[in-house]
Amino acid sequence: MRSRYFKQRLFFGAVRLSALVITLALLGILAYILAHGFRAITWEFLTQSPTDSMTKGGIMPAIVGTLYLTVGAILVALPLGVVSAIFLTEYAKQGALSRIIRVGVNCLAGVPSVVFGLFGLGFFVVFLKFGSSILAGALTLGILILPTIIGAAEEALKAVPQTFREASLALGVSKWNTIFRIVLPSALPGILTGAILGVGRAAGETAPIMFTAAAFFTAVLPKSIFDEVMALPYHIYVLATAGTHIEETRPLQYGTVLVLIALVLGIDLIAIIMRSMFRRNKRW
Amino acid sequence: MEKDFIVRTKNVDFFYGAFRALSDVTVDFEKNKVTALIGPSGCGKSTLLRLLNRMNDLIDGTRVEGEILLEGRNIYAPDVDPVEIRQRIGMVFQKPNPFPKSIYNNITYAPKLSGIVDSEEIEALVEESLRQAVLWDEVKDILTKSAMTLSGGQQQRLCIARALAMKPDVILMDEPSSALDPISTAKIEELIDTLKKHYTIIIVTHNMQQAARISEYTGFFYLGKLIEFNATEKIFTNPDVKQTEDYITGRFG
């Protein structure tokens, strides 16, 4: 009896410890970045272009560029991913074809991001002649996050009770309307969760945009989707490895990281607010 | 007097993959009457019910043989659109399944999609359907509230009202009161009694007293076969087949 009690305490202790380690790791990273970066955050830093070989000035072009690329990637991946998920869950017969598609999607999720970068360079930049541009970068990032979106959307669609579908079909409503008006609205919160995960991924990736969209330095903001942009992750990479004053710009690097995290959180916050709005009245 | 049969099945066989769930079922459902289908679990009565409005189409790997006629037309003919059949043959399920929408929108959802756009017509339809389902007085002031806030019995009557709003000819009910308390059950039974003036009702039930109370005809199913089909009074007092008697008197089932 006492040994069982001891085992339980041991196990609970281990569980608590793991949770603690994870929380501490996250808080540790955040605190470290905050401590090193917050001095760099000034109004000027957020609203100016870099100056003096990127050792001074701000990162506005990179903020704008990352915003464009991330939103563009979501605009590419969300419709495509949701439609794919609808096909897989609602239309495709559960057989060889849908299995092959699922394996394909899962493999896509496992492909290293630099491979997407090279593909984007070869296909969008060179073959389709988009050049290094927001369009090419957004498409590349879109493909990168597609598996995340498809996976989340599929789970969300599967979680919609079958009775909703039956109720709608039994009223003589077509399958398309049933999916569009009953199933999809019920699945929206889950789909948005997928979008949130996608945003974090798309905003933070460096390799896929390195060859397809990101400029080393440009002081002007993009005028069209065929323009090159600066991007936060690539800017960090450049400052930390390829600049002429790596040590001097450390505070700028941490500042940029801080901005990137804040940006991702900001976009996520919009999605989370939308999600909680959709969730109201959607309990079953 | 010549009887008017609205739905007839002729030698219907139904397969889930290799499993034969129904064999050689031939039965005629009379217009504006209540027909109860009874039998032990897994006997095929719900399967037959779901065949009548092509709900079994949703399940992969099933196969129907024989004919099911709605006013003489085979609903499984290749040129028949199941959507159109389901508009004429509505269905109420075992568990109340309102949409996560307002009470009002639960009613208007399908009629609007079927092409009714006039807002006065829609409003009249909502009131008429809810009155027919004896729910109007309880919900007339909370029509914009979510249907999920209603009690189970109210939800089920809302589901009936929702089916009525499509003005079907036939209403299929799959154990509509098995998830409800006795008072709600009594309300549903009263409702069925008034509805049969305008609708043909086919109801699957596990509750034999219910079948005896509300139906004019009863079909007894066992192991995928229709063992006996007769006037309800006859089935419950003096059945022709011994198996029916055994089931009704509780000797097996």
pLDDT under 50 segments of chain B (min length 5)?
Answer: none
* CATH structural class of the largest domain in chain A: Mainly Alpha
Label the structural class of chain B. Answer: alpha/beta
The H-and-E topology of chain A, N to C, reads as HHEEHHHHHHHHH
Main-sheet strand order of chain A equals 1-2
Averaged pLDDT of chain A: 89
Binned strand content of chain A? under 5%
The computed structural class of chain A is mainly alpha
Major sheet of chain B? 6 strands, mixed
| Distance linking N and C termini of chain A | 43 Å
Summed up, the helix count of chain A is: 11
Commentary on this structure:
Chain A is mostly helical. Chain A folds into 2 domains: 2-40; 43-279, MetI-like (MetI-like fold). In chain A, 75% of the residues lie in helices and 1% in strands. Chain A has helices spanning 2-37, 43-47, 60-91, 96-110, 113-127, 134-159, 162-170, 175-204, 207-210, 232-242, 250-279; strands spanning 50-51, 56-57. A two-stranded antiparallel ribbon of chain A has the order 1-2. In chain A, strand 1 and strand 2 form a beta hairpin. In chain A, helix 1 (2-37) packs across helix 11, helix 3 (60-91) packs antiparallel against helix 8 and helix 7 runs antiparallel to helix 8 (175-204). By secondary structure, chain B is of the alpha/beta class. Chain B has a domain at 5-97 and 170-248: 3-Layer(aba) Sandwich (Rossmann fold). In chain B, the strands form 2 sheets. A 6-stranded mixed β-sheet of chain B has the order 6-7-8-3-9-10, with helices on both faces. In chain B, helix 3 (103-113) packs parallel to helix 6 and helix 4 packs across helix 6 (152-164). The longest helix of chain B is centred in the middle third of the chain and has 14 residues, at 119-132. The A-B interface holds A 93-94, 161, 163-174, 177, 181-182, 186, 281-284 and B 53, 55, 58, 60, 83-88, 90-91, 93, 95, 97-101, 109-110, 113-114, 146, 148, 159, 162-163, 166.
Question: Summed up, what is this model?
Answer:
The complex is a heterodimer of chains A (284) and B (253). Chain A is mostly helical. Chain A has 11 helices and 2 strands; from the N terminus they run ααββααααααααα.
